[in-house]
Every structure is written in C-alpha cells, then in structure tokens.
Design brief:
heterodimer, B: 13-stranded parallel beta sheet, 4 helices
Chain lengths: 255, 412
C-alpha cells in the first residue's frame, strides 16, 4: 500500500495543476499581507479565500484525478491487491498532496506574517478542509462512470456546502425566528465543514461582532478545550464518513 | 472716611486670621483621635491629622472646618461604619486614606457622605474597598477632585458606586480615578455640573451612569473596560466632549448607551474596540461632530426611534459594521463623514465622493432582526447579499446614506 501511495503522491506532485495551485495560494497570501498594513484585515481576506477556493480546487481536482486514473485503477485491481488498499492509497495520495500544497502555499506566508493562534488555526482548518473535500470527491467519483456527471456532482457538492447550505440556514432562521435558536445553531454549524471551519477561525480573531449572544454561546462551546476537541472530532468524522461510504461502494462496484 | 473703611476691612481680616485655630492630632500628639480634636474646634478652624490609623467609627464633621491628612492617615471603617459624614457647609477633606466602609443592602454606607450641604471640597483622598466611595445627596457647588477610589467586590449587590451624586447642582468631579465599583460615577437629578479628566475603568456595571440629569458636561474622561460601558439616560442638554470609550466587550455592553437624550452634543470623542460604539434609542436633536470610531463591532447602532441626529465629520475606521438600525424610517442626517468601507470615486477631485455611501449593510439588518444569523458572519452568502443590496437597496433603509462621503480620513 505504501508503494502505491508513494507512486500516486509523486504523480500528483508532478501534476502542473497542483503546482499552479500552490503558487497561486502562495502569491495571493503574500499579496494580501503586503497590501494590507493591518494583519487582522489580511486574515479576513484570506479567510474568505480559503473557504472559497480551497474546497473548490480540492473537490474538482480530486474528482478529475480519480476519473483520469480509472485505467490505472483497473490495472491495479487485476493485480493481487485488495480493493480497500487501492482506494485508501488513492485517497491518501490525494489528501496528502493537497494538504502539502496548502501548507506550502498558504501556511508558510501565514507563519511568516501572523505568528499567532489565529494563523495556526487557519492552517489546521485549511488542511482539514482540503482533506474533507478530497474525501467528498471520492463519493462523487465512485457514484458514476460518467466523468461529466461525476464532476457535475462534485461541483454541486461544493456549491451546496459553500452557498446553498447557508442560504437554507438563513431561511430556517427566519422561519423559526420566534424560537431561541442559539444552541441549535451549534449543531447546525457542525453539519457543514466550511461553516465549522469559519466559526472556529472567527472565534479566534474577529471577536468584536461575534460577541453578541450567539457569539457568546458559540464561544462558550467552541472556546473550551472540550468544544475544540468535539469540533475537531466532527471534522475527522467529515473525512471518515464520506471515505468509508465511497469505499463500500468501490468494493462492490463492477469496474 | 475712605481710610476708616480700609482700616475696618483690614481689622476684620486680621481678627479672622487670629481667631482661626489649627490643631494637630496623631499618635505622637496630645490629642490622639480626630473626634476629640473636632470637639475643640469651631467654624473656620483647621485640623491636621498625622499619618497612622484612626478608628473613629463614624466621624461626623458638623462644623465648617478644613481636615488635612499628612502622609495619608488611614480612617478605617472596619466594614461596619460610614467613615466620614459631612454635615456642615464649607468643609474640606484633603489627603486621607479611607478604608473598609460598612456594607449593607438597606443603608447606603459610604466612605464619605455629604448630607444636604454646599461648598464642600473632597480632594486628594484614597478610598479602598468602600461600599459607596463619595456619596453626595442634595448638595450644591461641591468639588470632588483628584481622589483615587478602588474596590474589589465581585457581585453588583455587594458593591456601591464610586462617586454617587443624587439631586445635586453645580458639582465639579475632576481628575478622579475609579475602579472596581458598581458604577464609576453615578449622577441622578444632577444639574449644571462638570465631570472632567476622570479615569473610570474596570467597574462592574457602568463607567458613568447618568440619569435625569440635564445641563451637564463631561469632557476628557477615559472610560475603559467597564461591565457595560457608559450609559446616559433620560437627560437633556448634555455635552460630551473629547472622552475615550474603550474596550467594552460583551452582549449588552456599549461604549456609550444613549436613551431618551435630547438637545445634546457629542464631539471629539474616541470609541475604540467596543462591541457597540454608540447605541442610541429615542434620541432627538443630538449633534455629533469629529468623533472617531475605530475597531468596534458596530460603530453606531441608531434605532428608528431617534430623530434629528446630525452626524458630520466623523471618522469610521476598521469597524465590522458601520451603522446598524432596526427600521426603515430615517429622520437623521449623515454628511461629510469618512467611511473606510466607501468604494466610490471622486472625479472632480474635491475630496468628496461622487456617489452616496450607505453605511447600513444588508447583513447588519439581518443580524439586527435575527441575532442567531451571526453564525453566517463572513460567509459567502452574506457577502453576496451585501453586494447585491449595494446595487439595488431593498431591505436597507433607502434614506440612510451619506451624500457627501469624504475620500480621506479627517485628521482628528
């Protein structure tokens, strides 16, 4: 399995798109911090960027990569290797490469400009979001043989998590505005990895506006060590559940 | 005749100086305690207390005398008594340390209390752990100057106000430092008074609490890190100049809370890093010039119940939301302010933007109506909503706009 992971990882790292993605992240992070004299403001710009671009690139690139290596997968399946280890090494390679790209691209400038807990939180969340969306891409890719359909589905997933979900939350908030929803919001926020990542980072930085009642409830939960543990566990679940689901599908799939 | 009156004048002056006595009390003097010393004095005399600790229980000053402490002698209230009760006019208390007054939920014990008097001066004293610090009721023309008051209670019920004025007139509160009390400075039914150059920080409730007090001025004070900031309520003709309101964090905490205020001026103040810089409800005819709002959650929350508020030449820098409101009715004017979020242009180079600026964002309206929506702070959907609202305003009040936004921040 390690051999396959190594092969896939090297293959992805040689890929021009990942290289371009790394350079793009690197350039944009540097630009943001050198343009804004205020590091806090730079972090906010970067936050929007990370929550927008990182999931998009992760899910689309992973989906396309899996479709493109379908012949390679078929070749491996014909060998005496377990399907499980093929699928998991594919995922490990993708997740590892994307995380590496994020750490080099955004992590290094972040560490240079913002040496604080907020910066660290951003790197950790960026890596987790990269891995989560690689895992979601596995689901998108395993569902159908049709490449166009698969990519379409992955775009839909990204759109859902970054835009539609929040729209639905807003709709629900206004429908149930007569009820105290602060506690429910904690659960609702955990159901979307992008929201969860955003809130975790925001609680570390722009406390001013979030310190309303909702902010206080969030801080009381996510601010504690227990809350932090729970939220990172939820993030890990977001990696594991789609991955295990796709693995089950792949095991039974007629290639 | 002229000469005779001159001699008469000098004679009167001479006789008064002759008559005024000065008594020293202290551990090394003939008289060891202040109460005994006071009995030997009459109006116009001076008592000097040397350094040391005095257990006077409740010291009642009922003659017009000057009390001076050398090396800050300590008057200990043993957590049972009111340390000093001033019951005469023209009294001065200078340079004492007043510790541990009684604490009660039925009696307002104070370190020093002035009862229905005029022309009393309290200066250069240190108050430690008193229930109320300096309490003046029904007083006129008193000066409270350069005192330091600190307390360390945790519960509001066990703590009184630092400087408490009730039903007073022409008071001067100058240069005091107050921390750890319930309200730093409390005004109720106080008129024609000035609060100048005080520092009020770390109090449990308000840094300054202002009720039913008209024709007052507070200037050049610093209010920092108080439980709920500063509140000015049900008053008119209040002048607030050059104060700093800083670091008031939390829900229900405001840099400056204004409720039912009219005919007032708020000029040259600095609001920094508060959850809400100013929260205004039911205000009318208030003019706000040359204030700076920096790094607040909301710089200004102005409810629809306000009218004739004029905002001119203010700087709005780095606030999360510039203005929040709760309705579509706008009877206030915003003009010639600098907003760092302004994205317009200035073609004729007159340093005034050519398109109006709308300081209320769609998202701030949503949060105002539905606070849990704070969960979507900085998410893609709220950014999109804000942008589309900027192009075609529908939810945000149409008339709440600055027609002449400045292109560069004012030098304040």
């Amino acid at each position: 399995m390690i051999k396959i992971v190594k092969y896939i990882l090297l293959d992805i790292l040689r890929n021009k798109i990942v290289l371009a993605y790394t350079i793009f992240l690197f350039a944009i992070t540097f630009c943001v911090f050198s343009l804004e004299d205020n590091a806090e403001k730079g972090l906010l710009t970067l936050l929007n960027l990370i929550l927008f671009i990182v999931p998009l690139v992760s899910i689309i690139f992973s989906t396309i990569y899996i479709y493109n290596s379908s012949e390679f997968i078929e070749l491996l399946v014909s060998q005496p290797i377990k399907r499980k280890s093929i699928w998991l090494s594919l995922f490990t390679g993708l997740a590892g490469a994307l995380s590496l790209a994020f750490i080099i691209g955004a992590g290094i400038p972040l560490l240079i400009y913002v040496r604080s807990v907020t910066g660290l939180m951003m790197i950790v969340n960026g890596v987790l979001i990269s891995v989560i969306f690689a895992s979601l891409a596995m689901v998108a890719a395993v569902r159908t043989r049709d490449k166009a359909k698969g990519i379409g589905f992955s775009i839909l997933l990204w759109l859902f998590f970054s835009l539609v979900y929040d729209g639905l939350v807003l709709f629900l908030l206004f429908q149930f505005s007569d009820y105290p929803l602060e506690k429910a919001m904690i659960i609702i926020s955990a159901l979307n990895p992008i929201d969860l990542g955003r809130i975790l980072i925001l609680l570390k930085m722009d406390v001013s506006a979030l310190m309303g009642y909702t902010g206080a409830v969030f801080k009381e939960f996510y601010g504690t060590e227990k809350g932090l543990f729970v939220s990172f566990s939820v993030m890990i679940l977001w990696i594991l559940l789609p991955l295990l689901y796709s693995l089950r599908k792949f095991n039974r799939k007629d290639l | 005749m002229k000469k005779a009156s001159w001699i008469l004048c000098c004679g009167i002056l001479y006789s008064t100086t002759l008559n005024a006595k000065t008594i020293k009390v202290g551990p090394h003097q003939e008289i060891a305690d202040i109460t005994t010393g006071l009995q030997k004095l009459s109006n116009g005399d001076t008592l000097i207390a040397e350094g040391g600790t005095y257990h006077e229980k409740n010291l009642v000053v009922d003659k017009s005398i000057v009390l001076i402490g050398i090396n800050h002698p300590v008057l200990d209230g043993e957590n049972k008594y009111e340390n000093i009760s001033v019951k005469a006019d023209w009294v001065t208390v200078d340079g004492f340390t007043i510790n541990n007054s009684g604490i009660s939920s039925t009696v307002d014990y104070a370190g020093l209390k002035i009862y229905n008097r005029h022309n009393v001066t309290i200066r250069n004293n240190i108050f430690n752990d008193c229930f109320f610090g300096i309490y003046s009721q029904n007083c006129t023309n008193c000066t409270i100057k350069n005192n330091q008051l600190s307390a360390h209670q945790v519960q509001e019920q066990r703590s009184g106000n630092g400087i408490h004025c009730w039903k007073c007139d022409t008071m001067q509160i100058i240069g005091n430092t107050i921390s750890g009390h319930r309200d730093g400075i409390y005004f109720e039914f106080v008129t024609h008074s000035i609060i100048w150059r005080n520092l009020s920080n770390g109090n449990l409730r308000y840094g300054l609490h202002f009720m039913f007090s008209s024709h007052d001025t507070y200037a050049a004070n610093i209010f920092e890190n108080n439980g709920a900031g500063v509140s000015v309520m049900f008053s008119n003709h209040v002048h607030m100049f050059h104060n700093s309101f800083r670091e008031n964090w939390g829900d229900g905490s405001y840099g400056l809370l204004l409720k039912e205020i009219s005919d007032s001026y708020i000029d040259g103040n600095i609001f920094e890093r508060n959850t809400s810089g100013i929260f205004m409800e039911g205000g009318s005819r208030i003019e706000m010039y040359k204030n700076t709002f920096r790094g607040n959650g909301w710089a200004l929350k102005i409810q629809a119940s306000c009218m004739d508020i004029k905002l001119k030449n203010n700087n709005f820098l780095g606030n999360t939301f510039d203005v929040g409101t709760n309705g579509s009715l706008v009877l206030n004017t915003f003009d010639y302010n600098y907003w760092d979020k302004y994205e317009g242009y200035d073609l004729n180079k007159d340093k005034i933007g050519d398109v109006p600026y709308r300081p209320v964002s769609m998202y701030s309206m949503i949060v105002e109506k539905n606070p849990p929506a704070m969960m979507l702070f900085h998410s893609l959907i709220t950014t999109l909503l804000d942008k589309s609202e900027k192009v075609i305003p529908s939810l945000t009040p149409e008339n709440l706009k600055d027609n002449h936004p400045l292109m560069k921040p004012l030098q304040l």
